[in-house]
Amino acid sequence: MPGTVASEDELGRKLAALSFIERRALLEVLLSAHRDGGEGMTITALAAATETNRFTASRQLAALRDAGFVRARRDGTRRLHSIDLCGILMVDDWLLPFVDAALELPADAESPPVGVTA
């Protein structure tokens, strides 16, 4: 079921934002912090957790904020970043029919090797 052009463009931006391993690593750290009840993380803490530098973490967080996956708020002199799970829902809504179809496959079904077409 196709969405509107605007929502398709937004979905494309979200999927493009997820194409970088550094961004996915940041999201995984932020999700873990969210599940642990954290209030958010600084760029310094995120850089350390993902074994990168502050410049890279900052640049990748900006892309995740633009895509709607991360929020930032001021806490005194600190800027705390947290995951925006509502931003994840659009990707989830699009992927869900594919996941449902995959779950309907017989248990003995095999996927062709990557790069091989039927």
Describe the fold and architecture.
- By secondary structure, this protein is mostly helical.
- It has a single domain (5-103), classed as Winged helix-like DNA-binding domain superfamily/Winged helix DNA-binding domain (Arc Repressor Mutant, subunit A, Orthogonal Bundle), CATH 1.10.10.
- Helix content is 57%, strand content 10%.
- The chain is built from five helices and two strands; from the N terminus they run ααααββα.
- It has helices at residues 5-17, 21-35, 43-49, 54-66, 85-103; strands spanning 70-75, 78-83.
- Helix 2 crosses helix 4 and helix 3 (43-49) crosses helix 4 (54-66).
- The mean pLDDT is 88.
First and last CA, distance: 25 Å
Question: What fraction of the residues are assigned to beta strands by DSSP?
Answer: 5-15%
What count of domains describes the coordinates?
A: 1
Characterize the overall form. elongated
Could you tell me the mean pLDDT? 88
The oligomeric state of the chains shown is single chain
The secondary-structure element order is HHHHEEH
The CATH superfamily is known as: Winged helix-like DNA-binding domain superfamily/Winged helix DNA-binding domain
What is the C-level CATH assignment? Mainly Alpha
**E-strand count:** 2
CATH topology-level fold name: Arc Repressor Mutant, subunit A
Name the poorly predicted regions.
Answer: none
Helix run count: 5
Indicate the radius of gyration in whole angstroms: 17 Å
